[in-house]
Amino acid sequence: MRTEKEKMLQEDLYIASVDELREDARKSRQLTRLFNRTTEEEMGYRKELLQQLFKQVGKEIYIEPPFRCDYGSNTSIGENFYANFDCIFLDVANINIGDNVLFGPRVSLLTPGHPIDAEVRAAGLEFGQSIHIGNHVWIGGNVVVNPGVTIGDNTIIGSGSVVTKDIPENVIAAGNPCRVIRPITKEDQAYWEKEQAAYWEEVKKG
């Protein structure tokens, strides 16, 4: 017979109020409490705590305290990740974040779901659906990503969006519910490469 944790990770109905999941949550609360109390002089210690908290992390990861998560152990993060203040990861199902991803402040990744039927919901049953964030994604401040969503590579999500469905790669999307506004084009690339070249030229001149 499957444990409640196994049911949870397999995205089936489960009950969270069991000893195993309570212990996992306790460890997460402890690690995030320690992390949120660190100072700017303890950057190495911050990284150690995040390595203990998450299932997998790249070598370069930076999260601005305060930060909150359910378990941490169900979240995998790639290289060169940055998250601004007050981000929340509810990872009852897996959260997978690619390389070179940027989060604005108060981004929330929410994998939990609850039954529509009130009596079933009151019985304490819930479920989760995984969230997948591709490589080179930028998510603006106060974005909410709902259960089961995938965001494709190189995509930008505008601030304040509520992402309820999958968003493809190479687009700018925003709104509530979040919708594709336009593709990211070669003209965008040319413009920003020109701006970058001008920046480095100024740096070179001193």
Give the SSE layout:
Elements: H1 4-9, E1 14-15, H2 19-36, H3 43-53, E2 61-63, E3 67-69, E4 75-77, E5 81-83, E6 87-90, E7 95-97, E8 102-103, E9 108-110, E10 112-113, H4 118-122, E11 125-128, E12 131-133, E13 138-139, E14 144-145, E15 150-151, E16 156-157, E17 162-163, E18 171-174, E19 179-183, H5 186-205
Helix pairs in contact: 2-3
Family: Belongs to the transferase hexapeptide repeat family.
Organism: Candidatus Vagococcus giribetii
Protein name: Acetyltransferase
Word description of this protein:
It is a single chain. The protein is of the alpha/beta class and 206 residues long. It has one domain: Hexapeptide repeat proteins (UDP N-Acetylglucosamine Acyltransferase, domain 1). It has 5 helices and 19 strands. The strands form 4 sheets. Strands 2-5-8-13-16-18-19 form a 7-stranded mixed beta sheet, with no helix packed on it. A 5-stranded parallel beta sheet has the order 3-6-9-14-17. Strands 4-7-12-15 form a 4-stranded parallel beta sheet, with no helix packed on it. Strand 18 and strand 19 form a beta hairpin. Helix 2 runs antiparallel to helix 3. The chain is globular, with a radius of gyration of 19 Å.
Summarize the structure.
With 206 residues, the chain is α/β, with parallel strands linked by helices. 29% of the residues lie in helices and 26% in strands. It has one domain (4-205): UDP N-Acetylglucosamine Acyltransferase, domain 1.
